[in-house]
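Figure 3 (text version): structure tokens given as input.
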């Protein structure tokens, strides 16, 4: 026959076991909280979002298993742990998650369009991505009616252009395309103008000239630049006037066929630079004039990987 002391011991063991399970619940809750926050981070990538979408339901399933253990659901500290899990669960279906998925689909589609020289889709999808990420960021200060309307508008636009999350990157279609916002159409026209003038090739680096279709020129010291044929003698006269000997001349044979162009975009008013590799002079000049990672972006273009 069990004594009172035995009964007390048994009860203490059960309480200890419950505490252990509640401790596991907290461990789970603390691990899932930052994963839930991925879904409110405007810079979350497609991989980040996919990771969160897999991990959160797994954590929720593990939590509901723990809640079936004796005493766990009734434990005083359980509701607080569950509040973290509920927050993460809500994030799964929150508008910001839909916006992030759309932003990442739009980013991939814009990159594909850019590779196809499809200015319309490149600008439009880039704009959709920016608007989605902006709205995700705005969730932190609380959405007003304005953001709800803007969110529905951008998700609707994305859907009409085939950018619904999980959709394959849409192929360019014929004439029956959905309407484009006016500011996007303007930006597309601007890019089309730039593309047209870059058809002549790289721009002369003399700031007083800036004609397109410059040739690759070098001097005996290894200095290389792009100058138009008219500017080479002018640049040499300037060099001579400054007492600087080496003469620039067009590189014989021009840029080798197997070479590529490296466009360095630098911050004209602070630290930071980015390099983009291009296969043609047209693409290099177009990149130099359209990729603007800084407020005050400057650029230089170099020939790379030449066999000579
Ligand atoms: Zn020139």
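Below: residues designed for each position.
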């Amino acid at each position: 026959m069990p004594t009172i002391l035995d009964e007390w011991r048994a009860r203490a063991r059960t309480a200890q076991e419950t505490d252990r399970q509640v401790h596991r619940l907290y461990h789970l809750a603390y691990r899932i909280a930052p994963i839930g926050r991925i879904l409110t981070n405007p810079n979350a990538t497609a991989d980040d979002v996919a990771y969160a979408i897999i991990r959160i339901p797994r954590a929720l399933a593990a939590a509901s298993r723990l809640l079936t253990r004796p005493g766990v659901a009734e434990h005083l500290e359980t509701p607080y742990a569950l509040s973290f899990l509920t927050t993460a669960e809500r994030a799964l279906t929150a508008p910001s998650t839909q916006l992030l998925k759309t932003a990442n689909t739009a980013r991939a589609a814009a990159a594909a369009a850019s590779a196809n020289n499809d200015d319309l889709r490149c600008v439009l999808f880039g704009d959709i991505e920016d608007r989605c990420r902006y709205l995700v960021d705005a969730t932190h200060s609380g959405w007003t009616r304005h953001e709800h309307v803007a969110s529905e508008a951008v998700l609707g636009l994305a859907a009409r252009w085939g950018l619904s999350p999980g959709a394959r990157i849409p192929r360019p279609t014929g004439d029956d395309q959905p309407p484009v916002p006016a500011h996007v159409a303007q930006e597309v026209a601007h890019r089309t103008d730039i593309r047209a003038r870059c058809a002549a090739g790289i721009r002369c680096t003399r700031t007083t000239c800036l004609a397109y279709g410059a040739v690759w020129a070098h001097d005996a010291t290894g200095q290389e630049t792009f100058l138009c044929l008219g500017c080479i003698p002018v640049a040499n006269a300037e060099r001579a006037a400054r007492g600087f000997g080496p003469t620039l001349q067009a590189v014989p044979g021009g840029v080798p066929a197997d070479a590529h162009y490296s466009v360095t975009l630098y911050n004209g008013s602070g630290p930071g630079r980015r390099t983009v590799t291009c296969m043609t002079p047209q693409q290099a000049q177009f990149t130099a004039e359209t990729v603007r990672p800084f407020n005050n972006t400057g650029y230089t273009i170099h020939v790379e990987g030449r066999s000579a």
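The pocket of zinc ion is lined by residues 204, 206, 209, 211, 227-228, 230-231 (CB under 6 Å).
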